[in-house]
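Predict the 3D structure for this chain.
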Amino acid sequence: MFDLTFRKNGFSLIETMITVAILISLITIAVPSIANFTIRMRVDNEISLLHRMLLLARNSAINNEQYVTICPLNDDERCTQDWQGKISVFSDLNKNRRYEPDNGDIILKVKTAIKNDDKLQYGKKRNALIYGPTGHLVIWGGNATFKYCPKDHSNKTRGIVVSTSGRAYKTVYNKKQAQDTNRSGQILICR
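Done. Predicted structure below.
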């Protein structure tokens, strides 16, 4: 006797359509979450890197009993207001906001430029932070807030508040306002 039953391998059209519909639903939910996650991670990484640079500058000033400057340098090795560009930390023995290796200045750290469409701001028109041998800022009115502003996502702005004493504090997420605020509860606003 012969067995006339056949086994089917594979999926039916309906099973395939249901699977595709489920996948499309999952992707529709996941893609915005992944995009938000990558933006948040980019901002967090930049803020953490900048915070470590501030700590390095302050500690170097105290430990070496000298002036240390953080700023974006132009082609003439002078501090500029282009905080989106490459930022350098260097010993600035005469605190003139210029990197002069012939006078004994030493580069301690360099941070690469940020993503093209994002913004990094420090104060209104500040072009440098200079730490003195005590760890305090030596420029009158040098204290301000760094703000990292991702393009088209102002609610994900993060910052670092630098006080006159030279200490740096990261802003914190405020659930009530659904974005980062400083210690006074003020929202960071990019200009």
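The chain has a mean pLDDT of 88.
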